[in-house]
Amino acid sequence: MAKPTTIRIPEKLLNEINEFVQELKLDRSAYLREVLQKGFSADKQDRILLKYVRKELTQMEVCKELNWAPWEFLDQLKSRNLHLNVELEDWLDAADLPSR
Amino acid sequence: MARIIADSSSLILLAKCSLLEMVCNLFVVIVPKAVSIEVASKDLVRAYPDASLISELTSKGAIKVQSPGSERPSLPLSLHKGEEEALLLAINLDGSILATDDGKAIKAARFFNVPFIITPKIVVELFRLQKISFKKARESIEKLGKIGRYSPEIIADALISLMEKEDG
Fold first, then answer.
1. What residues in A contact B158, CB-CB < 8 Å?
2. In the 8-state DSSP scheme, what is residue A85?
3. Domains in chain B, please, with CATH?
4. A59: nearest CA in chain B?
């Protein structure tokens, strides 16, 4: 069930939103809900991935937080031009495989 | 035979490079139950072909599923269940190597002095051990850069290392 909340936003932005919803004949409340949902989702992903880059989260912790399948993770990094959080030092320190 | 304890990140990259089956044939590959569920649950098997491969290898016993046991030292940082159990297995099974492509999991492995390996190194090592051709190794490393999202500096270093090994 939707619950009410109140926020203050700059007048210029509010005017812009009002003009836009009028022009496109949108329901103002429904539009604001949608924008908030989209913005929250995008911002959450950015912030969680930043924590991954800083090694504060593992791949699987990210997947759990963002409800991604682990097989999706690499594509998500690619779409944001991000890399794995493994460093050159890790490559240099990696163990050798024994021959037997 | 050497023992490799793999977490989800490593299983996924090895599968994407088409090297998982070979690694399972050459080494004892062990995963905790949580990792097996993370990458190859029934739903994932239906949606991702590589998940299906992992499920098949697990069913055949090529990937062994093992519990880390009750001896669980407290970790210096939080990990997801699969990563944590893979690390605990590597701690408890002497002489094993933790295969992971996650920076935070590597950080935890370093804390316990657990030997770890990342997928580009596995590729270079398979070439050094003459298990794959230079061409296959180079293709796999390039794939780890494009699909696997390894940083260009690691990919460049891995390719140099590969060429050095080819020159003997």
1. 91
2. S
3. 3-117 (3.40.50.1010), 121-166 (no CATH)
4. B102
